[in-house]
Amino acid sequence: MDTASQHNSGDQLVDMTELIELRDGWWWPKHDVEAWKWIPREIQALPELLKWVPKRGTIIQAGANCGVWIKAYASLFEKVYTFEPNDLNWECLLRNVTEPNVNMTKAGLSDRMGYCKSVDGEDKNWGAMQIEESDSGIPMVTIDSLNVNCDLIQLDVEGFEENALKGAYLTIERCKPVIIIEQKRLGKNGMTDAEIAIMIQDWGYYFAERVISDNVFIPR
């Protein structure tokens, strides 16, 4: 058995292949209903979002889920960096995305290096899994630690927007990428969606458009 298909849960080794299935050509968590229903609809908004991104060199994305958005980005950008901390989503991502221009990391994004764990959420929506800081487990990294130039930062991190953005401050200051973040009033560390938007605007951006639940910020 491929070790990528195993997950250590306490003292019990869980075979991840027993928890996923092939749906219309996509590997997907067996129990998921909501993400399977909504992601194909939401990705229809991609042209509306990317009209604000004239340069298509490098994108840094977090919240890869099972890879639907990532495969689309791989065909539109020269280089894709993406992050996914959830074990089951990661297993599906590895199987679904094989494009050579995609760099995938099993990690969460934050404002400092450390560790995180998945928070038990709604079993029927594997597109809404959240993380919280932990003493061990899944790595947490910063965008600044990548030390790459980018044209777009796109975050779907279920309430960890503040942390991920603060960990990207130097990259944002240096590159002035377009910033697209999903905001659904899930902020986990004290800042509201409005306060996060103000923070981004204080960094030299203006709010351009809201598309479904994604807010687009453009450098001045």
Care to describe what's here?
The protein is of the alpha/beta class. It is 25% helix and 31% strand. The chain has seven helices and 15 strands. The chain has a seven-stranded mixed sheet with strand order 7-6-5-12-13-15-14, sandwiched between helices. The protein has a four-stranded mixed sheet with strand order 8-11-9-10, with no helix packed on it. Strands 1-2 form a two-stranded antiparallel sheet.
Tell me the layout of helices and strands:
Elements: E1 6-9, E2 12-15, E3 20-23, E4 26-29, H1 34-42, H2 46-50, E5 58-62, H3 68-74, E6 79-83, H4 87-96, E7 102-105, E8 108-109, E9 114-119, E10 130-134, E11 138-141, E12 152-155, H5 161-166, H6 169-175, E13 178-182, H7 193-202, E14 205-211, E15 214-219
Parallel strand pairs: 5-6, 5-12, 6-7, 8-11, 12-13
Antiparallel strand pairs: 1-2, 3-4, 9-10, 9-11, 13-15, 14-15
Please list the strands of the largest sheet in the order they lie side by side.
7-6-5-12-13-15-14
Distance between the termini: 51 Å
**What's the pLDDT, averaged over the residues?**
87
Oligomeric nature of the chains: single chain
Estimated radius of gyration: 17 Å
Largest pleated sheet: 7 strands, mixed
What descriptors fit this protein?
220 residues; alpha/beta; seven-stranded mixed sheet; four-stranded mixed sheet; 7 helices; disordered N terminus
Could you give a short description of this structure?
The protein has 7 helices and 15 strands. It is α/β, with parallel strands linked by helices and 220 residues long.
